[in-house]
Amino acid sequence: MKPFTYERVATPAQAAAAVLRRPGAKFIAGGTNLLDLMKLQIEVPPHLVDVGRTGLDKIDPTPDGGLRIGALVTNTDLAADRRIRRDYGVLSRALVAGASGQLRNKATTAGNLLQRTRCPYFYDTNQPCNKRQPGTGCAGIGGVSRQLGVIGTSDACIATHPSDMAVAMRVLDAVVETIDAQGRTRAIPIAEFHRLPDNTPHIETSLTADELITGVKLPAPIGGTQMYRKVRDRASYAFALVSVAAIIQKDGTGRVAVGGIAPRPWRIEAAETELPLGAKAVTDRLLADAHPASDNAFKITLVERTLAAVVSKAKAA
Amino acid sequence: MKFDRPAGHNPIDQLRVVGKPTDRIEGRLKTTGTAPYAYERHDVVPDQAYGFVVGSPVPKGHIERIDIRGAKASPGVIAVVTTLDMPRLEKGPMNAAYLFGGAEIQHYHQAIAIVVANSFEQARAAASLIRVNITGQSGQFDLSTQVADAPLAHGKIPPLDRVGDFDSAFATAPVTFDQTYTTPDQSHAMMEPHATIAAWEGGKVTLWTSNQMIAWARRDVATALKIPPENVRVDSPYIGGGFGGKLFLRADAVLAALGARAAGRPVKVALTHPFLMNNTTHRAATIQRIRIGATRDGKITAIAHESTSGNLAGGGPEAAVSQTRLLYAGANRLTSMRLAHLDLPEGSSMRAPGEAAGMMALEIAMDEAAEQLGMDPVQFRILNDTQVDPEKPDRQFSRRQLVKCLQLGATHFGWNRRNSRPAAVREGDWLIGMGVAAGFRNNLVTKSGARVRLGDGGLVTVETDMTDIGTGSYTIIAQTAAEMLGVELGQVKVSLGDSDSPVSAGSGGQWGANNATAGVYAACVKLRRTVARKLGLDPDMAIFAGGHVQAGGRHFGLADATRDGELVCEDAIEYGDLDKKYQQSTFAGHFVEVAVDAFTGEIRVRRMLAVCSAGRILNPKSARSQVIGAMTMGVGAALMEELAVDRSRGYFVNHDLAGYEVPVHADIPHQDVIFLDEVDPISSPMKAKGVGELGLCGVSAAVANAVYNATGVRVRSYPITLDKYLDHLPQVL
């Protein structure tokens, strides 16, 4: 960890302004990811702006029948919220599939969206990594790649986004709301929030440097059977090999997003039209452009089989 | 005390304290966070500074220069010591890689410097400012490409054993089986990393550390620092797990000592988890070929087990064929160990070195051979049981109840409900299967000493350098002394892990419990005689019970013997050749039921049972804890544990506890342990043997066999992760 300075702010606008004042400064909320990365000097912000007391910790109804989730609502509180459990079951299930009880108590909604990859090469500062140190190369390509991405990756980076929550947000068509130092607000559809790596894998979202997430808006509930199926090497406390978030309607139509395979939650709306034809048809379209690395081609089969499990469960429900 | 004849009746046989399920006497300290572990011993010496170890960023090369200017100038830094500042440190006989090896880099994260500062954060920040120029060298990191040319290993265990004529017996056997299995590199991954506080006083150094083998540590510290062993004190009363990773001296201890010398004040050092994987040692990967020839009715006539592993120069092989020399009958036998040179970190002992990895392969092979023969795998094992060392048939096992373990286990587990046809049992989305494996691990005897004090009020204090690595040593030692001296458990204090105490067996190779308590037994025998003489009683007739001593109608309180002051007796158990005359081993039957998700291939262990034949069980409660912990480790080895090798960059990539997965609570279901009621008088006066490693050996194969039974897919490469069989699962789409 490099020495850094710290300040606490009272409002979202103050937070954005404070970060703009100090180049390289970062927001900190729960710190469950950032602090680990700072200890390993993967992140070396000179200044931290603590947004923990900006009051963004409420879940409120929106005029169109949805919910606005404050950026600081913890993963535990969000998963347990009665409205979330009733109307957005996929989100609650995704949250409890992630991390551990202790981490979920600290981790926030915005922080979860912004957590960084768990690629082992990103985590070892002796190794090249374009995401950690642009231009140094990618050790994951040709390296130990079992956990890494199969689609949406690039020649510069094959890391995945590790969030479970974000996969559910994607299938729910959530919208990320922000504010910047000038007080301007933005609403970013979740589909446009995480960027693909291309030649700039260190740029992971569409946020500007001084832009603070204030909340995430969920559209009005769409019903259906809502499932989150996470497959991993042990029963708990591990990142997904593959996860499937799905909302299946009684008529067999629905939505599907996949985690663990790409630099962002992977959803192609056109593929969902194949749902009545079964998991294979959906997977074939969803992963038509897949480029597996040496160790992870199995993820394509696993997506298909996990989706089949989900569809089968939905039929039984 | 010399132990060279089988034990007769002795005071331990009263089983008033020994053999009773007993809570750990130090349990309260541990559950209240007050047991002093090495890194938290703030009170032992004032003014402790913090050391942070710098590791090599490459796996092999020559250091040209280390620039410490930035680190030296960093806030709070007191001293920086690099491996170029001194000749490379000499190493002890059990270490292969150098702990501070001069300019030559032998493996990734090998220690090359230590930064000492006023705070941990300052030391760590400064460490990142050290700049190293290294001329890298290419190395060998891939065992699979080295197998063909690997020579026979050298070392204490003979690399090649032949009995009869395997080749012709195998060639003419009516039924033959030939398969190859692989086991991966595994990490001890214990909770407490290696940690040491070092303080110098003149030419003497004290190390408060976390180490399983105090006398070895003392010897090797003296070698490394070039000081006499009597100038080294090692203190390690509590150890947060070892699993063999703390058998031998590691970089934390020597670098804390060097850092403290340079800083002129005490220094504490803990290795980080990445260092646990790449700086210290691991269980080495193996490639094992097993051939079995049998008659049509299932009698083994030929058995061969050939294993190849890799290591650094000076390192040994993973002795994966050890059990195959002893476990099953068969007149024609071939076992061999080959050793390839690899430039990965050092392969060394991890819980049940040899047998753990060997049984992972052998016990799948037995399952496969049984199926080929159309036999039940339990019956196949029973049919090929032996009561003598199959390589030296005039040598009997001291006590061997493998058959009973398997039979009792089969009954208890409901083995008769197993469908021998694979992939035939389904419950909803789950494919259900059962698996069995034998468990086998040798019982090792070695000299062990102790000192016993009888003080005011009849308080008994036992002092030995024996360690408790979470196993329950404190409690069984107290039980032994209480039994021998006729006092309650609460009357006994136990001091462990201090090199000022008599040298014990230490903790490793599941030898700790039997040998260390036998050493305490020896010292207590001496104390009993001393007490009797002091009280004017016939030492041969004196009975110690209820805090009293009596003989010939005369009766005293035990404390009466201390009226002229404390009585102190020291002795050691020393073994004759009973372990040469008899083969001493421990046995188990491991039974596992798994469910495999028919869609995703996820494996969930549902039930586990171990039936153990391991001599007298000194404390059934802590012994059970040892066995269920070992079974858990066996599930990890079967299903998830693997140090992933980057074959071009030459290191273990998943070097933290997020990347190196071990089972969590959700992975471990109902576990049952049955100990056979037995004693082994050949083993020691305690008539006990070890269980801590027995509980692991065979478990992974039982899991693997259950997965096969559930799915019909045979995976011969551990860990059994779903990517290896997903394509072969029943079609569900």
UniProtKB/TrEMBL annotation, chain A:
Leader peptide range in chain numbering: none
Top-level lineage group: Bacteria
Transmembrane segments: none
InterPro entries according to UniProt: CO_DH_flav_C, CO_DH_flav_C_dom_sf, Diverse_Substr_Oxidored, FAD-bd_PCMH, FAD-bd_PCMH-like_sf, FAD-bd_PCMH_sub1, FAD-bd_PCMH_sub2, Mopterin_DH_FAD-bd
Boundaries of every FAD-binding PCMH-type domain copy: 1-223
Protein's UniProt keywords contain Cell membrane: no
Entry annotated with the keyword Glycoprotein: no
Descriptive protein name: Xanthine dehydrogenase family protein subunit M
Species of the source: Gluconacetobacter azotocaptans
Lineage: Bacteria, Pseudomonadati, Pseudomonadota, Alphaproteobacteria, Acetobacterales
UniProtKB/TrEMBL annotation, chain B:
MF terms (GO), sorted A to Z: iron ion binding; oxidoreductase activity
Ranges that cross the membrane: none
Gene3D superfamilies for the chain: Aldehyde oxidase/xanthine dehydrogenase, a/b hammerhead, Aldehyde oxidase/xanthine dehydrogenase, molybdopterin binding domain
InterPro entries (alphabetical): Ald_Oxase/Xan_DH_a/b, Ald_Oxase/Xan_DH_a/b_sf, Ald_Oxase/xanthine_DH-like, AldOxase/xan_DH_MoCoBD1, AldOxase/xan_DH_MoCoBD2, AldOxase/xan_DH_Mopterin-bd_sf, PaoC-like
A Pfam family this chain is assigned to: Ald_Xan_dh_C
Residue stretches making up the Aldehyde oxidase/xanthine dehydrogenase a/b hammerhead domain: 32-138
PANTHER family: ALDEHYDE OXIDOREDUCTASE MOLYBDENUM-BINDING SUBUNIT PAOC (PTHR11908:SF123), XANTHINE DEHYDROGENASE (PTHR11908)
Protein name per the record: Xanthine dehydrogenase family protein molybdopterin-binding subunit
Organism this protein belongs to: Gluconacetobacter azotocaptans
